[in-house]
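Our preliminary data section would be incomplete without showing what the modeling component actually yields. Below, a chain of 424 amino acids is followed by its predicted structure, encoded as tokens that our downstream tools consume directly.
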Amino acid sequence: MCPATSELISSYADGSGSFGALFDVVALDDVTLRGIDLNVDWHTDDEADVVVYARRGGWFGMQNEEKEWTHLLANTTLSRPDDFEDGGTMTVKLTSAMVPREDFAPLAMGAGETWGLYVCMSNADLRYTVGTNVGSTVSANPQLRILEGAGAANYPPFRSGTPEGGNVDYTYYAPRVFNGRLHYDHVRECPTDEPSGAPSAAPSSAAPTASPRVETTVSYAFYVEHDPDQSGELVVYDMTDGTRKVLARLVSGMDAVLTGYAEDDGLDVVSVATRVITPREIGYICVPTPPQECLPVSVDVEVTHNKTVSSNDVTYALLKHSTSLPRLIGGEVAGNTKIEYVGERAVETESRVTLNRVPGRKMGEGATAFFEGVVRDFLSGQASDGSAANDGVDILSVTVNDQTIGPLGTAPAYSAGLRDSAVR
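Predicted structure:
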């Protein structure tokens, strides 16, 4: 096993805020929490005291029970960055309030454990987002899952009804989505070398060859209709974050084919990046419903996988979900956003081919693979020469589904059912 350092962003969608946020983190693997970044707009002051508490078992019902919060992870003072600009780019938000690593006490979290975190600051500039359901997953990766929680309207924590708390009962708003980023350490499988199947006559000093990997890239094009006060940078971030979350679900059980590729063929989502494109690249102009605005974007996804599955098969499996992506991504994006998919689509057709005067037996594995390749080349030629060329059809694969042998005249006839996968 090899050590690794990673991070998980909850959200930076803004929308609301106050003095604090409570939320649960589920450890899917053994990790050590090493740091936390907050989303702070610095409207009240240029400096704020920040405390971060943790407890094993979740936050709900324990928001006023100080003795239950056994881990004080941070007790520090943060200052407004010199280059901070409210309402700026995502980079500005990501760096608006970063708890120094030296001021953060590491927290070991075992696989399967749920930990509650309570972040509170001395002014009401901590940002969060209105959620949908306490306990719903906000963000996840193979090591961690962040859940929806609550916002805290008072400071300092755990002083409800006391003189220190102004002799008022503390107020909590739920559901709310913590805005910020967690940094953590974990271990992962080390890169392995592919052993040779043939015995070696003598030891070799040459370095072993790493197992080959294939890179496959697909692009999803969208028109995103959004509120006029939502910046293009935030739309880009939301589309990247939403697509990443949807893909994580698809390869971890939501889609049987992609999950199989992940488990059996080492499929791994390497990167998800959103870029703004032009209406000309799509082919028509979006006309939004006033006062909404429309932004054309392309979400570029790069995955790697073993050679045991072809790049064409992976491409088809990813593009197969193109028509459902607006709904899936929309479920991960806060605000009044309408997403329309306008890119390449995966299509699948079935046909039957009959061959006369052939041997009266079914094809074996090698002959079937050869026949599938011949049919694919033929269909690709037809697609490039005929009217399909104008539609941008690309034949990805051809599969023989069934084979039958039957009489036709004086010689056997071979019949095969075919399924071809393509994008257009």
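Residues 55 and 69 are 5 Å apart (CA to CA). Helices lie at 90-94, 232-254, 256-264, 279-282, 311-319, 325-330, 365-385. Preliminary results of this kind motivate Aim 1 of the renewal.
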